[in-house]
Amino acid sequence: MKSASISIHDISIQALSNYIKGYVSITDFNKIAVQSDLKALFNLADIKSFYPIKDIELAGLIDVNLNAKGYVDLKRNIFPETNTSIVMKDGFIKSKEYPIPMENIHVEAFVNSEKGSLRDLSVKILPVSFTFAGNHFS
C-alpha cells in the first residue's frame, strides 16, 4: 500500500446532458500526493432515465468543480492547494417511506486553500435552505 497509486485520466462520463469530466491522480500513501481537476453537472431528475432507482424521487441541479494539487499531511498541517465548489439548486427529495417531500433545496459549499496548508484552508457553507411540509427552513 505504501507505493500504491491511483490514476484516472481523461474521465469523460456522459448520460443525457449530465456529465463528469476531468482527471484524478493519488500517489504515495505515506505522503499523499493529490492532483485532480473534475467537473460534474447533474440533473437529479434524469438519473431514473439511465439508472434504476426505486422508492425515491429526486430532482435538482448539482454542479461540482474540483481542482486540487499538492500533498495531504495532517500531522504537518499540509493540505493540497484547492479551489472547489459544490452547488445544489432546486433540490427535491421524496421517498416511499416518508411521502412528504423536501423541496427547494439550495446548498452552496466552497473549499479553498491557495498556499496548500490547513492554516489558509477555508471551508465556506452558505446558508442551506429548503422547504419541508410547507415550512421554509434556512
Please summarize what this structure is.
This protein has 138 residues and is mainly β. Helix content is 3%, strand content 64%. The protein has one helix spanning 47-50; strands at 5-15, 18-27, 32-43, 56-72, 81-95, 102-113, 122-125, 129-132, 135-137.
Description of the structure:
With 138 residues, the chain is mainly β. It is built from one helix and nine strands, in the order E-E-E-H-E-E-E-E-E-E. Strand 8 and strand 9 (135-137) form a beta hairpin.
> How are helices and strands ordered from N to C?
EEEHEEEEEE
Q: What is the 3D shape?
A: globular
| Residue fraction in strands | over 45%
Q: What's the average pLDDT?
A: 93
Compute the number of strand runs: 9
* Cα-atom radius of gyration: 18 Å
- From the N-terminal CA to the C-terminal CA, the straight-line distance is 44 Å
Main β-sheet description: 9 strands, antiparallel
Helix content, binned percent: under 10%
Low-confidence runs of at least 5 consecutive residues: none
Q: Treating each run of at least 4 consecutive H or I residues as one helix, how many helices? A: 1
Structural class, by secondary structure, is mainly beta
